[in-house]
Write a structure and sequence with these properties.
Beta-Lactamase; Rossmann fold; 3 domains; seven-stranded mixed β-sheet; six-stranded antiparallel β-sheet; 20 strands; 27% strand
């Protein structure tokens, strides 16, 4: 059936009784979600191999055109439609769905029930709520929902390791996905493009923010909920740093100005360490301002700002404004580019203590990274007061760990740190640790504070090999050395250390 373009002149009465002229959509041909129909005044009337006919109650907006073009990937033909007819159709369909729906089927049988209505069914709401609550209470950092041929796998990342906690029938995933999109204020019609959003939930007395990431995959969609609870900062001495490292970090925090960096990959606990450092120096006599993305920990007495790129509140922009607030200490969540690095360095030069993070593999690499960002070597040498690199490893469960003889290969690895040990520890798993053998995580780290010799080396030659050798000569314990010391002490295992730090094969 041919149809006039929506913006073409239409004879009186031509927009009446449009829906009655089109047959119901075939079985399995899904109608648009009711929220989209109500918001855009658009409903699918028919769909062929190359063309889709859409009824609309007004002029087609650019948003509607783009959404439907991306969704269908076909030619869209628009037909004028009376608003009263569409309202009557929606009322009838929702009443029909309410009468025919069952908790098991969740539909009317003709495929016309919209996903957003399904998403607001009590069973779906309860399912999504229980997944979120289970992840939060288990101490997970992420919740992963992954649609596949055999169903939907729900996994939680606990202590840095993914663990399957349940599976969901594949036919329930569209409703679960739509429910999460509704909670995150995302477009439930969009399934071909990635989407990001945020959800705030309350569990008991705690308000928890979930950062939502949805990407299309071959089986449907992959949904990741990053748990960002506004927790209190931990004490610096509770993170797992050795006594020498703790003494060094605390001495750095007593400095009136300069740049202190914490490095490591994503998920290595850098933000936790920075906030613990703030907690250690926060007082009524110190003005502290942070610029973070996102604010994960609440530190009493500290002014915390969350970036918002959508409205122009980037690290660099906020840092310029923050300097007018007369702070003593500034925390920058991450130095991502040259301009931010330069402002951070200038801030440290003008009498501020600046704390931040970089993505480098080890502590020594902060020096060439800053210089490669465009900073002058002599400025780096004068401003950089200290750097620490860290990783997180799982701790053996204290309830079920037992000693065992060290194997020959393990003893060779331990000798890399100058350790002679005839026994190590392992855990078989118990109810307390969920059968994993591990409970909680601890830091393995390396840290240094530049001395005059290192400053001169930076200005003459900032080669990473020479800098690392100089730091080793001055007694800096490496990540590997620190990890193997903790393995020998029964805190973790060599396998955990090897998962985070490369162990030289030739020497092992």
């Amino acid at each position: 059936m041919s149809a006039p373009a929506v913006n073409a002149p239409v004879a009186a009465g031509a927009a009446r009784d449009v829906l009655s002229r089109y047959a119901p959509l075939p079985e399995g041909d899904e109608q648009y979600p009711a929220a989209f129909i109500e918001a855009q005044g658009a409903i699918k009337l028919a769909e062929g191999p190359e063309r889709v006919t859409v009824g609309v109650t007004g002029k087609v907006t650019a948003l509607t055109r783009n959404l439907l073009r991306n969704y269908h990937g076909k030619v869209i033909e628009y037909v004028p439609l009376e608003g009263s007819e569409l309202s009557a159709w929606l009322s009838a369909k929702m009443g029909e769905a309410a009468g025919a729906r069952s908790p098991q089927a969740g539909g009317t049988g003709d495929g016309s029930l919209s996903l957003d209505r399904l998403a607001n069914d009590a069973p779906v709401i309860n399912l999504v709520n229980s997944i979120c609550i289970e992840g939060i209470r288990s101490g997970a950092s992420d919740i992963h929902l992954e649609a596949g041929p055999s169903g939907v796998r729900v996994r939680c990342r606990i202590d840095g390791a993914l663990r399957t906690v349940r599976t969901i029938p594949g036919e329930r995933f569209p409703a679960v996905s739509s429910r999460i999109k509704i909670m995150a204020n995302l477009n439930i019609l969009e399934r071909r493009q990635p989407q990001d959003g945020r959800i705030t939930v309350t569990v008991g007395d705690e308000r928890v923010e979930l950062r939502v990431s949805i990407v299309p995959v071959t089986g449907g969609e992959s949904i990741v909920l990053r748990i960002l609870g506004k927790r209190a900062a931990a004490a610096l001495g509770e993170l797992g740093f050795g006594e020498e490292q703790l003494s060094l970090l605390r001495s750095l925090l007593r400095l009136p100005h300069g740049l202190i960096l914490v490095t490591g990959p994503t998920g290595s606990g850098k933000t936790t360490t920075l906030n613990a450092m703030l907690e250690a120096i926060a007082s009524d006599t110190v003005k502290i301002i942070t610029i973070e993305d996102p604010v994960e920990f609440i530190v009493p007495g500290v002014n915390q700002i969350q970036t918002n790129e959508a409205i122009g509140l980037s690290f660099g922009t906020l840092l310029r404004r923050v300097l007018r607030q007369d702070p003593n200490v500034i925390l920058i969540g991450e130095i991502r580019d040259g301009p931010t690095a330069e402002i951070a360095l200038r801030s440290a030069l003008t009498g501020h203590l600046v704390l931040s993070t970089l993505h480098t593999n080890d502590a020594a690499s902060v020096i060439p990274r800053l210089i490669n960002m465009g900073l002058e070597p002599y400025l780096v040498a004068s401003v950089l007061k200290g750097a620490a690199a860290q990783r997180l490893v799982r701790k053996l469960c204290p309830r079920c760990k037992t000693a065992r003889p060290a194997e020959a290969g393990e003893r060779r690895i331990l000798r890399l740190a100058g350790i002679e040990a005839r026994q190590l520890w392992h855990s078989s798993g118990c109810a307390e640790c969920g059968g994993t053998g591990f409970a909680g995580r601890t830091v393995i780290a390396e840290a240094f504070a530049p001395d005059q010799a290192l400053e001169e080396s930076i200005m003459k030659s900032w080669n990473i090999t020479s800098i690392t050798a100089l730091l080793r000569e001055r007694g800096m314990r490496s990540l590997l050395h620190d990890g193997l010391m903790k393995a020998a002490g029964g805190i973790t295992t060599i396998a955990e250390v090897e998962r985070e730090v490369l162990i030289p094969e030739a020497e092992a």
